[in-house]
Amino acid sequence: MTEQPASWDFDYHFKIVVIGDSGAGKSNLVLRYTKNEFSLETQTTIGVELAPKTVKVDGKIIKAQLWDTAGQERFQALASAYFKGAIGALLVYDITKPSSFKGLEKWIEKLQEHADPNITTLLVGNKCDLSHLREVRTEDAEEFAQKHNMAFLETSALENTNVELAFQKLVAAIYERVKNSPLPLPDLDDRNKRRKLEPETEEEEEKNVKRGCC
Ligand SMILES: Nc1nc2c(ncn2[C@@H]2O[C@H](COP(=O)(O)OP(=O)(O)O)[C@@H](O)[C@H]2O)c(=O)[nH]1
Ligand SMILES: [Mg+2]
Description:
The protein is α/β, with parallel strands linked by helices. The protein has a single domain (12-179), classed as 3-Layer(aba) Sandwich (Rossmann fold). It contains eight helices and six strands. It has a six-stranded mixed beta sheet with strand order 2-3-1-4-5-6, sandwiched between helices. The radius of gyration is 18 Å and the shape is globular.
């Protein structure tokens, strides 16, 4: 029998949205985590960027699909499709920009409005390399995270501090939540429910059907 493509070989598929004010460093956190790269440029492309990353938790292979806004957050234009089916959210602010910390309330409202009520969220204070420019105290962020029942970490996409840990923590927390829930999960996108060896695209699905009947 032919070996299945690597993209099929996972136990869980988690859609994770990355949200927060423009300039907080969302794209660079995703870039650092998925490609170990960093860019000084701010992305201006319009459209949603998807970045996959496969991780192992508790012996299970989890494909995390990270949804990066690619600029629409600037215009408050994130449609409900962006949040639909998301099982996790990385909520990002910039420790040197109090406005991005104040903006978190607005992002939480967006989550409440569009996302699954059980979504697992991790708060990230990015740019911790710029400690001399810090304007948001760690204690204030900790208090905020506690109030909203989410874990919290400070990161630097530039220096690669806690980036892997932040995503790993989020994926592990989602896994803990879903591992004992009988599938299908309520109100979630099909992709979160897909199990090992199920086809990813219509084309693959068609191929699979052909394989099955010959
Ligand atoms: N010093 C520092 N700059 C960062 C960090 N992360 C992102 N940046 C910079 O902040 C700007 C905005 O980053 P970007 O990832 O495009 O933010 P986004 O709008 O939230 O996606 C860019 O100039 C990045 O180079 C970081 O951890 N430290
Ligand atoms: Mg961006």
